[in-house]
Design brief:
alpha+beta, 6 helices, single chain
C-alpha cells in the first residue's frame, strides 16, 4: 500500500486497516523474537541500541490513567521516539495487547510499552510494519503525533 492509497482511505477503513496491521506486526515480531515488552525493558533497549528500534506501542487503560509515574515514563519514551525518528502509537485495549504479545508480558502491568526491533542482520521485514509507518507519517502531517489504534477483537 502506497502513501497515496493510505491517504484516500476513509477514516473508518484506515483505522480498521491499521489495527489489523498492528496485530500482524505484533504476532510476526513475536515469532521472530523481535519484540520487547515492559516500560523498563524497553527503556534499556532504547538506551543501549536505539537504532535497533523500529516501532513503539504505548498501552493505556482506565485503571492506570491516573498513574503519574507511568505518564512521566510515557512522556520520556515519546520524546525519545520523536528524537530518534521511531514511529509510535497508542492502544487502549491492554488486555488484547497482552494476548498478542503472549509470554513476553509476564503481568498485565508489564505491557504498557512494546517495542518492535530489527534484528542486526536485517533478516526480518514485515509489509504490515510499512503500513504502520505510513499511517504514523500521515498522522504526524495532521499534527497527531501519537495516534491511537484500536486492535481488532480476538477471532
Amino acid at each position: 500500500m502506497t502513501f497515496e492509497e493510505v491517504l484516500i482511505q476513509k477514516p473508518a477503513e484506515r483505522a480498521q486497516c491499521t489495527g489489523k496491521a498492528l496485530e500482524e506486526v505484533l504476532v510476526s515480531a513475536q515469532d521472530n523474537d523481535a519484540i520487547t515488552v515492559g516500560v523498563y525493558e524497553c527503556a534499556k533497549v532504547m538506551n543501549l541500541d536505539p537504532d535497533s528500534v523500529s516501532f513503539c506501542v504505548l498501552a493505556m487503560d482506565e485503571e492506570f490513567q491516573c498513574d503519574i509515574a507511568l505518564q512521566i515514563h510515557f512522556t520520556l519514551i515519546q520524546s525519545f521516539c520523536f528524537d530518534n525518528d521511531i514511529s509510535i502509537v497508542r492502544v487502549s485495549d491492554m488486555q488484547r495487547l497482552v494476548e498478542l504479545v503472549g509470554d513476553k508480558a509476564e503481568q498485565l502491568e508489564d505491557a504498557h510499552c512494546v517495542l518492535i526491533t530489527n534484528p542486526a542482520d536485517g533478516s526480518w521485514e514485515d509489509p504490515a510494519l510499512q503500513k504502520l509507518h505510513l499511517f504514523c507519517e500521515e498522522s504526524r502531517s495532521l499534527n497527531d503525533w501519537v495516534p491511537e489504534i484500536s486492535l481488532p477483537e480476538k477471532r
